[in-house]
């Protein structure tokens, strides 16, 4: 298990690499199946850190709760038509995306 310092360093690094991006700019990654949808109820950086740590149990739990998963064709089409801008972070080869547009952030 990583130390708190190394986890904090990873979260700080991921925070610097997180940005907003238009869904249309992610079409190639979506076509390859490399885009992961993250529920707005989860912390995008925490999910990215768990993916980087290869925490399979946590991901399976999130997937079972439909909090993390593939972007469906219907969702992709909606984001494309709306010209949606999403928050994203890359944990190669994955691009994690989160739509925060309809949610109030604390």
Coarse structural class: alpha+beta
Broad shape: globular
Spatially, the strands of the biggest sheet line up as 1-4-5-2-3
Report the average pLDDT across residues.
91
Order of helices and strands: HEHEHHEHEE
Span of the ends, CA to CA: 29 Å
Ranges where pLDDT stays below 50 over 5 or more residues in a row are: none
Whole-number radius of gyration? Answer: 14 Å
> What fraction strand?
15-25%
Number of helices: 5
Extended strand count? 5
**Biggest sheet: strands, sense, closure?**
5 strands, mixed
- Report the helical percentage: 40-55%
Account of the 3D structure:
By secondary structure, the chain is an alpha+beta fold. It contains five helices and five strands, in the order H-E-H-E-H-H-E-H-E-E. A five-stranded mixed sheet has the order 1-4-5-2-3. Helix 1 crosses helix 3. The longest helix is centred in the N-terminal third of the chain and has 13 residues, at 4-16. The protein is globular and about 45 Å long. The termini are far apart. The model has no long low-confidence stretch (mean pLDDT 91).
């Amino acid at each position: 298990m990583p130390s708190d310092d190394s986890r904090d360093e990873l979260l700080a690094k991921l925070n610097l690499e997180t940005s907003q991006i238009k869904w249309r700019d992610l079409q190639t990654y979506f076509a390859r199946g490399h885009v992961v949808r993250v529920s707005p109820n989860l912390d995008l950086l925490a999910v990215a850190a768990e993916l980087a740590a290869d925490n399979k149990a946590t991901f399976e739990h999130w997937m079972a709760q439909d909090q993390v998963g593939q972007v469906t064709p219907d969702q992709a089409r909606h984001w494309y038509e709306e010209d949606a801008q999403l928050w994203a972070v890359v944990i190669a080869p994955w691009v994690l995306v989160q739509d925060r547009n309809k949610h109030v952030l604390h």
